[in-house]
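As a warm-up, study this chain.
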Amino acid sequence: MKALHIGISGWRYVPWRGDFYPEGLRQKDELRYASRAFNSIELNGSFYALQKPERYRQWAQDTPEGFVFSVKGPRYITHIKRLRDAEEGLANFFASGPLELGAKLGVFLWQLPPSLKYDVDVVEAFLALLPRTPEAALKLAKDSATRRPEHWPRSLSKRPLRHAMEVRHESFACAEFAQQLRHHGVALVFADAPRKWPYGEDLTARDFVYLRLHGDKELYASGYGAPALERWKERINRWRRGLQPVDAELFDASTRGDRRSRDVFCYFDNDVKVRAPYDASKLMALLDMKLADRQEPDEPAGDWS
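Now compare it with the structure written out below.
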């Protein structure tokens, strides 16, 4: 079976302190704590602002062996430039240091704004620019005119770079878009968001799937009860085997799967009421995930449905 990466989207939230995070835990130790409860975290600070190479290096040092970060691409590219003329933005992003994560680099997430309609040519041009190897990303980074790190990574991972795209305008819910992603090997994000955005479960990347669970009934707020988590467990186990659930929702109904086993990246983003860490922990238990030095959170009493 392929690898399972289950975790949370971001880790620095004030309401989590004294709840998921123990009272008195220093803010600078929160990543250390969270990375021992889960084996992956979606790094979303990179969406709001370019980070620095030394910060990526520190994050890699603060997390245990085998831990993986997925990295959210900058909103400058997705929301301001709206995928157009992305060369400079991509160069600056890769020059900011995500390759410093080394073996702990998982997937690059490209989240599109709800107002961005599907334009086949714009999407095609952007997907063609995405680097598929660390060497290609480093070459892009060295073309940056505004960000020049003091040094470049001394060694690069040999693994191909992975990319996933989350769409939020209904015009993307079409076979042409799914086929386009499949051609470029980019994963369609399975974004569970109380029917707020289009939802598809097309297997478009050859060796992984990417899930973002934004809330079962209320966006970013409601938790996932036992039946919902059991449902996600069953679906994840099928996707790992390259299979589709019988009730899979597809943008491209002409193909259901290819029976290739796939890694799974799954992140809970229902953080407002401190549900994400507890739901992630419950799903890990359902999937029988064992971490060597796992710090399992104790859930406070109460009705969290």
